Amino acid sequence: GSEAAAEQGQEEEVEDRLKEQVDNLLDKSAKTRQAALQSLRLAFSSKTLSEFLLERRLTLTDCLEKCLKKGKGEEQALAGTVLTLLCLQMGSGSEGEEVFRSLKPLLVSVLTDSTASTGARQSCATALGMCCYIAAADLK
User: Fold this and answer.
1) Which interval of the chain is the signal sequence (predicted)?
2) Residues 95, 124: contact at Cβ < 8 Å?
3) CATH number of the domain that 5 lies in?
4) Model pLDDT for residues 73-112, shown as the tens digit of each residue
5) How does pLDDT run across 32-52, given as a tens digit for each residue?
6) b/e map of 5-22 (b: 16 or more CB within 10 Å)?
7) Contacts with 105 (C-beta within 8 Å, 6 or more apart), sequence order
8) Is residue 55 pLDDT above 50, yes or no?
9) What's the CA dihedral at 28, 20, 57, 11 to 10 degrees?
10) In which domain, by residue range, is 4 found?
């Protein structure tokens, strides 16, 4: 009983921190947004968070879109990485496909922008490839 309660408390604590990081993606400060992206990258790569992400995929997609559009260099690179991990977490179902479809034009735009940093372009290329592999509907 008490172990389950402690585990539940830990999960809620993790979710609260993640919610805070998602909120930080909308901060005016680029440093704050980058720190939030780094925290999300760590969280998404170390734990399965399907339930949490399903509920917040639209908000997260909007935030990542803003980071890719308005961010520069490091922020765009991190956003591409977080997007790849989000796609991995969402899987090959309609949710993952929806996330990919909404951000694909932006990924292509950063990838083909010769003024974007090499890191950002590389990250967007990886995101494009991975998300396409995982979440793109079979085109017949």
Assistant:
1) none
2) no
3) 1.25.10.10
4) 999 999 999 999 999 998 888 888 988 999 999 999 999 9
5) 999 999 999 999 999 899 888
6) eeeeeeeeeeeeebeebb
7) none
8) yes
9) 170
10) 1-135
Closest CA to 105 of 73, 69, 139: 69
Q: Do the domain assignments include residue 125?
A: yes
Domain presence at residue 140: no
pLDDT at 140 over 70: no
Q: Domain for residue 72, yes or no?
A: yes
The Cα 126–Cα 83 span in angstroms is 10
Domains: count for the chain: 1
Both tokens of 130, joined, read: 């991975």
- How far is the C-alpha of 90 from the C-alpha of 53, rounded, in Å? 8
Q: Which two tokens stand for residue 91?
A: 């899987």
Quote the percentage of the chain above a pLDDT of 70.
97
Measuring CA to CA, how many Å separate 34 from each of 74, 77, 92, 136, 139? 8, 10, 27, 27, 35
Indicate whether 89 belongs to any domain.
yes
